[in-house]
Amino acid sequence: MIEKNVLNPDLKEKNLKDLEAIEHRVRGMKVSMMDAKEWYDLKGHIGDVRIRLNLYS
User: Fold this and answer.
1) Who has the most CB within 10 Å: 11, 12, 21, 53?
2) 43 CB-near residues (< 8 Å, 6+ apart)
3) How far is CA 49 from CA 20, 28, 30, 34, 57, in A?
4) Is residue 38 part of a domain?
5) Is residue 43 assigned to a domain?
6) Which residues contact 47 (CB under 8 A, 6 or more apart)?
7) 7-35 pLDDT, tens per residue?
8) Is residue 15 part of a domain?
9) Domain count of the chain?
10) Core vs surface per residue 17-48: b (16+ CB within 10 A) or e
């Protein structure tokens, strides 16, 4: 939903708050070595979404 609404400036604060909550949950995850790449990719994707939120809204 955050990515879908990235172009809506009225939702910027909500999107940033929701993204922060997701980031907090991901930071607390413990993953096996087999899942480490996907976890790292997820963290990168969160960062990309944050950048888009700050650029477009």
Assistant:
1) 53
2) 23, 26, 27
3) 11, 19, 22, 25, 12
4) yes
5) yes
6) none
7) 998 999 999 999 999 999 999 999 999 99
8) yes
9) 1
10) eebeeebeeeeeeeeeeeeeeeeeebeeebee
Instruction: Please report the pLDDT score of residue 57 as a whole number.
Output: 63
Domain that holds residue 40: 9-56
- Integer CA distances (angstroms), 5 to 33, 40, 49, in order: 33, 24, 11
Structure-token pair, residue 2: 């955050």
Say if 2 falls within a structural domain.
no
pLDDT at 56 over 90: no
Query: What number of other Cβ atoms are within 10 A of residue 55's Cβ?
Result: 8
Residue 54, Cβ density class (10 Å: 0-12 exposed, 13-18 middle, ≥19 buried): exposed
pTM: 0.83
